[in-house]
Amino acid sequence: MDPAQDEVILDCLRRGVCTSASVLPNGPSTASLRGRLEVLDHVSFGVHLNVTEFRPLTPVRALAPLLDHGAFGPRTLQLDRTQVDAVYEEWCAQVVAVRELGVTLSHLDSHQHVHYHPLLLNALKRVQARFGIDRLRGMATWRPGGGPSAWRQLARGAWFNRTLRQASPEGITTDGFASVSLFREVVQAGRLRGHSFELMCHPGNPHSPDYAEELRWLEGDWTRSLGVPVEKVSWWGIG
Model-level pTM? Predict the structure, then answer.
């Protein structure tokens, strides 16, 4: 999204603080990463599929209802079936754009989690099949507190993750997904379940003090605090 954040993320990858990153295909500073990622062969890189911010890579007219002065915006939340094929073509162009930076792609996720949108699940599966990318970010199945909202999240997340896995062989995901802060709450509540978790962080992002605090935690000896054996892996280690 900007060169300063890119440098912080790359530093975290070099130092082993983070094991994976996803690239925003149509971000303002993405082109400057060309030739800089393939040397980080101990980590994994995915595509951060995007239909909510910046300009699209394809001139598809059907995308027009999602655009504001030529750029994506919050109108994506009002997506209907007529735009799904256009989103599929845009996402294919985005995968090609990241691949042309010189990396072998390990997984797919999305900006602002739009790949969770029910109407886009078919487009997501088609992108997977076209490019042979079988690893996908799953949906969180836990949230703080209890009550109906927590149960709805559990049911929705379980359904989404099960659907991804049933799309075999294009359906590998982790047992859990959460921000670092939410993951710490899960651990403290004794609700850690499963064998593989993706922890999301935002190194260098200045928009929330929580992001900096999460990074400090990751830079510490956090794996010993969980009380169970932990191995940090990239997306290549999930299968």
Answer: 0.91
